[in-house]
Every structure is written in structure tokens, then in C-alpha cells.
Design brief:
Layout (H helix, E strand, L loop, with lengths): L2 H8 L1 H16 L2 H56 L16 H22 L5 H17 L2 H7 L8 H11 L12
Helix pairs in contact: 3-4
């Protein structure tokens, strides 16, 4: 112990209170001392129970949220199946689309829904780093090589998704526009 702590314990007030506690404990009978120890152990056990039960409640909340998201995803898939069978029904949810290529737009929307689901699972830390890396690469390839980026921009698809996912797509997936070629004079 340093000089300060030695001075602290040398203080008459501290010595008096240490002596008072020692005398109080020494004055307890063995049954009183046993009751005190049992109370301390009981309080510790209650504290540990509270801690672990709160962790379990948080875990159950995440599990419930995951199940709800899976149910919503299944509803979207069922809706997609109906729209695949009859693309003319697409006007029920988006009457602003022109008549051409309903099937392509619908398929692009389904891919975007899948990407949004993957993104949200990543945000909730359900996907591992390795799984996310593979899915992100797949999404980037789809946006860079396919028509999804064009559909995203032309049909203003970001209006159909939450802001977080829309920002992610605009920041990470939509390829930047090609700069205009410069001509030399």
C-alpha cells in the first residue's frame, strides 16, 4: 500500500469504524453470522438470476423479431407468386408503370426485396461476416451486370423501401454514372 492508503487506515475515524464493524461481527452469534451469510448469498443469487433472465428476454425478442421478418418475407414471396401468374395485377399496387415488361419489373422488385431482407439481417447482426461478404458480392454483381440498377433508378424503387436500405443501395450498389468522355481540342 502507498503512503496515502497507509495514512487513510491510520486515521482515527477509519480505525474506529473498522473496530466497530469487527466488534459487531464478533458480537454476532454463529446463527446470526450464518443468517447474514445466507442473506448475502441469496442477494447474489437473485442478482445473477435477474442478469441472466434479462439476457434471455433480449434473446427471445431477437428470435421473435426474426420470425416476424421471416413471416413478412413469406407474405412477399406469396404475393410475388400471384403477380408472376398474373402480371396485370401489378397495377393494384403501382398504377404508374407502363404496360411493358411487367414481369421484368416484378422480378427486379423480388430481387430487391431479397436484397433488403439480407441487408436487414446484416444490420441485426444475424449474418456472419463471411455470409455478408458473399451476399454483398452477389448484390454488387447483380446491380453492375443486370438491369436492376436501371430499374432502381428509372422506376424510383427507393420509394418502396425504407430509408436505410435505400441509402445503402444508392451508396454501395448503384454503379456511379460514367463520366462524359472528354474531347481534346
Amino acid at each position: 500500500m502507498g503512503a496515502r492508503s497507509g495514512a487513510f487506515f491510520a486515521s482515527p475515524k477509519v480505525n474506529l469504524s473498522i473496530c466497530a464493524v469487527t466488534a459487531a461481527v464478533a458480537g454476532l452469534g454463529s446463527s446470526d453470522l450464518l443468517s447474514l451469510v445466507q442473506s448475502i448469498v441469496l442477494i447474489g443469487a437473485l442478482g445473477a438470476t435477474l442478469y441472466f433472465s434479462s439476457r434471455q428476454v433480449r434473446s427471445q425478442k431477437v428470435d421473435l423479431e426474426t420470425r416476424v421478418l421471416a413471416d413478412i418475407d413469406k407474405m412477399h414471396a406469396d404475393l410475388a407468386a400471384v403477380l408472376q401468374e398474373d402480371p396485370s395485377l401489378l397495377k393494384v399496387i403501382n398504377n404508374q408503370l407502363s404496360g411493358e415488361s411487367h414481369r421484368e419489373r416484378h422480378f427486379a422488385y423480388q430481387i430487391l426485396l431479397m436484397c433488403a431482407h439480407i441487408y436487414h439481417m446484416r444490420e441485426r447482426k444475424i449474418l456472419s461476416e463471411n455470409e455478408w461478404s458473399g451476399e454483398l458480392k452477389w448484390m454488387k454483381n447483380a446491380f453492375n451486370r443486370g438491369l436492376i440498377a436501371k430499374t432502381w433508378k428509372d422506376d424510383r424503387m427507393e420509394e418502396w423501401f425504407d430509408r436505410s436500405f435505400s441509402d445503402f443501395v444508392n451508396r454501395e450498389l448503384v454503379p456511379p454514372p460514367n463520366p462524359a468522355p472528354q474531347t481534346s481540342d
